[in-house]
TrEMBL record:
UniProt-recorded name of the protein: Diacylglycerol kinase
Molecular function GO labels: ATP binding; kinase activity
Gene Ontology terms describing biological process: phospholipid biosynthetic process
InterPro entries: ATP-NAD_kinase_N (IPR017438), Diacylglycerol_kinase_cat_dom (IPR001206), Lipid_Phosphate_FormReg (IPR050187), NAD/diacylglycerol_kinase_sf (IPR016064), YegS/DAGK_C (IPR045540)
Keyword terms, alphabetized: ATP-binding, Kinase, Lipid biosynthesis, Lipid metabolism, Nucleotide-binding, Phospholipid biosynthesis, Phospholipid metabolism, Transferase
Co-factor requirement: Mg(2+)
Source lineage: Bacteria, Bacillati, Bacillota, Bacilli, Lactobacillales
């Protein structure tokens, strides 16, 4: 039986999962419990665990949204621990894209399943090194986006509508009005990809998503068929298009993934040390959290991490 060290975001999903929290607290193998109090707190808690824990049965249990899981993963990896501490997860956020990609279901389903897990499994995460837009190293569990989807994230995270929809259990619906609004303001930009011996120029990129699983944006299947167990990352790029074509693409994306057949959409499987260059100032997001705005010049690689799922 693992020993769970909990990092809980009490504000995730509008704080509407108190019944799940109470059920978790009743588990006999909860060793420590920490509620996050501010953005970035999970990074600090995870880093502390990684540096100090000597418990060989330790599993870090994250309760929250994709952002909480993202912060915890980055904190654990920033500590450069010799043996990684496995990550467990109960999704209580509004988007919950990782939960969809990992097929762990709702918060109650994930908790029920968690009680029967006996060993960790290795999943693929993304690693980026370079200017993004500041010089740093970051890890992602779902996606890194530049352009339209990042603008959508910014609008959604600052929307009063999101808080209302979270309160009635429809948080993922908050992304749709943000998508329509962001489209009218997002401009095309140039980007370059160096992928092995390929030098690829995209003169009018509009949406750029680096991903290791199917979903982003609260359940939108940007890359159907992607698998968290696959040891490769992908990039999906949509070029600037008319609003009518965008609606057609979005409808196809929501329906069956046939958006990948549009001539304005490019799908590239990334080789190790692929390089991404964007010289126009653009917004960016990572796992549904704002990264800021800037230019970009970074290297992309995949990495493995143990998850207790």
């Amino acid at each position: 039986m693992p020993n769970f060290y909990v990092i809980n975001n009490p504000c995730a999903g509008g704080g509407e999962q108190s019944n799940i929290i109470n059920d978790v607290k009743k588990m006999p193998n909860i060793v420590a419990w920490h509620d996050t109090k501010y953005r970035g707190h999970a990074v600090q808690l995870a880093k502390h665990f990684a540096k100090t824990l000597q418990d060989n049965k330790a599993v870090i249990l994250v309760i929250g949204g994709d952002g909480s899981l993202h912060e915890t993963l980055n904190g654990l990896l920033q500590a450069s621990r010799a043996v990684a501490i496995p990550l467990a997860y109960i999704p209580t956020g509004s988007g919950n894209d990782f939960a969809r990609g990992a097929h762990i279901g709702s918060a109650s389903e994930a908790l029920h399943h968690l009680k029967s897990v006996h060993q960790s499994q290795i999943l693929t995460i993304g690693r980026i090194d370079g200017d993004i837009p500041r010089q740093t190293t970051k890890y992602f569990i779902n996606s890194l986006g530049i352009g339209l989807d990042a603008a959508v994230v910014s609008l959604t995270n600052n929307s009063k509508l999101k808080h209302y929809l979270n309160a009635i259990g429809l948080g993922s619906m908050s992304y749709l009005p943000a998508i329509l609004s962001a489209f009218t303001h997002q401009e095309a930009f140039q980007m370059t990809i160096i992928n092995g011996d390929q030098y690829i120029q995209i003169p009018s990129a509009f949406l750029v998503a680096l991903t290791n699983q199917p979903y982003f944006g609260g359940g939108i299947a940007i890359l159907p068929g992607a698998d968290l167990h696959e040891t490769q990352l992908d990039i999906v790029i949509a070029a600037k298009m008319s609003f009518f074509k965008f609606l057609r693409m979005f409808a196809a994306l929501k329906k069956d993934g046939s958006h990948l057949k549009f001539h304005t959409v490019h799908h590239i499987k990334l080789l190790p040390n692929a390089q991404i260059h964007v010289r126009n100032i653009q917004p960016s997001q990572i796992d549904g959290e704002n990264l800021g705005i800037g230019t970009y010049e970074f290297t992309v690689n995949h990495q493995e991490y143990p998850f207790w799922l």
